[in-house]
Structures are given as structure tokens and as C-alpha cells.
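Exercise 3.2. Students should predict the tertiary structure of the chain below and write it as C-alpha cells, then compare their answer with the key that follows.

Predict this chain's 3D structure.
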Amino acid sequence: MRKPHVLLLPLLLVVPLLTSLLGLLSAAPARAADNGSWSVYPVSSAVAARPYFYVSADPGQTIEDKVVVANKTARPLSFRLYAADAYNTARDGGFAVKSLGERMRGVGAWAKLPRDRVTVPGGETVTVPFTVEVPEGAEPGDHPGAIVALDERVDDGGGSLALGVQRAVGARVYLQVGGPALPALAVENVRVDHHQPVIPGTGDSTATISYTLHNTGNVTLEPAVRLTASGLFGRTLLTRDLKKVPSQLLPGQRVRLTERWTGAPQLDRAHVTLTASATRTTESATASFLAVPWAALGTVAALLAAAVWLLVRRRRGRPEGTRGTARPAPASPRPNLSRTGGG
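Answer key:
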């Protein structure tokens, strides 16, 4: 199972029991990756500063670049330098990178650093060159990753819990390998969980809509998702542009997302449609649910069943003499067969 190792700008790595790495992602503005104590960023070009590495290469090509590690404290700091592949976190689709020791297939395997550790004096910077050797058989499309500077010291925080903290900062690498660009997006496994009051109209009805957003292409997408819902006879119940969507969905990645719908119908047949779109790709998926007060209907049905049972029992329990009986038909008169007269 993958150990979560999430790239922050800045990046915070938490190590429960000193065995695994965990990070939390925040939205990253277009500036150097920085946690207040140190930062990591590309060497500026002659034109402007670069917040990230944007690199294009063909299969079999080697490119060269430089990363800067800046120490903002007054004392020397030592870091472990490494390259890593990126992925989207399952929790919210945040930009994350694999941890040290995991198998790398892209930038983490192709980027070569001349040294894996660096010490930066207080208030100074160190520039480290590196190369990215794209193999001949590399798949075309985007291969995101990062160059990470990790402080290997573990801070226990001084608390009683067995929890250690490591901090790291990483500069993102957006590597695009030449070849056909195939944007493709899918909406999968749509599910609706509906909850409503026992008696209609006595409270709010809610629906939780869950779905999987899947980048099935080979380029990074910036998806937008619209939620619509219709009722019986095509009535529009809801139209909403969703906000809890990853800003970037990396190639091949899946993210499970949820959306809460307050004020969902309490007596209707609803059809929910999710439409995901990005540059040159659009995909939709639909799910339906029946909004019926099942608890109230069940209670009414139980009461009716009880009433029928009591009526049948009452009829069966009547005394024999009080039951209606059929009256016997009057007997037909017998013919007189005796003969009279003499002789």
C-alpha cells in the first residue's frame, strides 16, 4: 500500500511512529515553494522567474536544468535531495509525490542529481544542477513530479504521542514528452445516498452524491464539473457548478469526490447528472433515486396490517350462538297414498 507523501508548497511531512510520511497540500500560488525556513525553486531564466519547472523533451533526449535551495534561517541546514513522481491524493485530489523508496516510473526515475545531500549555510543559497534523461520508450504526454529538499531530522514536537514530524519543500516538475496528446476524462461510479425526515415536510431532505473523476488520457487536465438534477416530467431541481474539484488531475489518476445537496426532494423520482469537462474532452454520467418517505409508509402499512389482523381475529372469536345460521327449508307435504271405498 502506498505511503502518503504529499508535496506541500510548503510541504509538511508527518511521520507516525517514525515509519511513514504524510503531508498536507495547500493551494500553491505562482511563486517559489517555501515553508518559511527554506525554499526550493528553479534557477531564473533571463526573461523571468519560474515558479515551477516546465520541461518538454522527446523520447531519448536528455535535458539539463538547475534547482536552488535557499536557507532563510541564521543557522546551517542539511537536506536530502531527491526526485519523485507525482500523483493526486485520493482524499481531495491534491498534488502529492511518492516517498523515498517507492518505485518511480517518470520524473523520479529519469531525473539525476549529482548528490543526494546538500548543506546550505544560514541566509544563503545552493544551486544544484540536474539532468532528466527521457528513455527511448517513454510514453508521450505529461509526466509530473518534483525535486524535493527534505530535512531528515525528526521532531517529536515535545508531546506525549509517538508522532514525529519531518519537513520538506519541493519544486514541481511538469515534464511533457513529445508525441500525441490525448485528453480524456471519465465520470465513474456515481452514487446517491438520500436521507429525509420520517414525515414529509417536517425537516430537511439531503442527498450525498459521490463519484469518481478519472483522467483516462495522457495530459494533465483542469476539470470543471456541473451537477444537474431533474424530477418527474423533466422538472429542473438543481443546477450547480461544483467547487470541490481538483485544480489539476494528473494522467491516469482517479479521485473520489462527494457533493452534498441540501433541500433534495422528499416525494419524487430524481435523476442526477454529473458533467465533467476540460480542454477538448467532456463526459457525463447519471444516477437516479426514488424520494419516498419509506418509514412513514412502513408505519401506515404496519397499522393497516394490525387492523386487518384484529378484525379477522374478532370475527373468528365470536360465540357459536351469535354466528348467523341458515334456516332450514320447509318440508314438502307427503302425498296421501291411502285408498278409500269399498269393494
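Discussion points: Residues 11-177 form a domain with the Immunoglobulin-like fold (CATH 2.60.40.10). The two ends are 127 Å apart (CA to CA).
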